[in-house]
Amino acid sequence: MRKISLWLFILDFTIGVARGQDAATQQQIDQLNGKFQDLLETQAAQTKRMEALEKEISDLSDKLNQPAANGSATTDDLNKLAAQVQEIDKKRQDDNELILRQIEKLGKVGGGSAVVHKSSPAVSTTASTDNPTPSAGGPQKGYDYTIAANDTISAIAKAYRAQGVKVTTAQILAANPGLNPNSLIVGKKIFIPDPSAK
Question: What are the backbone dihedrals phi and psi of residue 17, each rounded to the nearest 5 degrees, phi first?
C-alpha cells in the first residue's frame, strides 16, 4: 500500500508540476501575443502615416506641374521672352542697316552724296564733361554731332566711317557717358572721337 500511495503521491506531484509549467507557458504565450498585437498596431499606424505623406507629395507634385494661375511667369517663360526680344532687336538693327544701304544706293543713283547726316562734322578739340578724354594727356580730337530724328549710334558710327573716321559705337558711347543708345534725344550734341587723330 505504501507503494501505491507513493505512486499516487508522485503522480499527483507530477500533475501539479505539469499544471504549473502549463500556466507559466501560457503566461509567456499571452505576453508574446500582447507584444505581437502592439507591433501590428504600430505597423498599421506607420502605414497610415506613409499613405498620408504619399498623398501630400502627390498633391504638391500636381501643384508644381499646373500652370501658374495667378499670372506669374516662370524662369523658362522669362528666358523665352528675353530671347524673343533679342531676336526682334537684331531684326531691327538688320533693318536699319538695310535702310542705310538703300539710302546710299539712292544717293549714288541720284548723283548726290549718300551722307545720312545733314551737316558735316566740325572738328572739336575741347574737352569737357560732355566730351571726357580717355587719357590724361589733354583734349581728345574728334567731332561734335547733333542728333537728328531716327538716328542710332550704329548709323552715326557708320556715317563717320564712310567719311574716313574709323570710330566704333563702343568708342562713341565711351566718349559720351550717360548717353542712352536706346533713347537718343533729337537736337542733343554728342562727341564723336577720332581714334586716328592724336
Answer: -65, -40
Give me the phi and psi of 189, to 5 degrees please. Answer: -90, 135
pTM over the 0.85 mark = no
| Distance (Å, whole) CA 72 – CA 1 | 106
How far apart are the C-alpha atoms of 39 and 31, rounded to whole Å? 13
The rounded distance, in Å, linking the Cα atoms of 72 and 67 is 9
One-letter amino acid identity for 81? L
Tell me how far the alpha carbon of residue 111 is from its chain's centroid.
53
Mean pLDDT, residues 102-116: 62
Q: Pick from 152, 149, 131, 155: which is nearest to 187 by CA?
A: 149
- Is 121:194 a contact under the CB 8 Å cutoff? no
> Cell numbers 550734341 correspond to what residue?
189
Residue 140 backbone class (left: φ over 0; alpha: ψ -120 to 50; beta: rest): beta
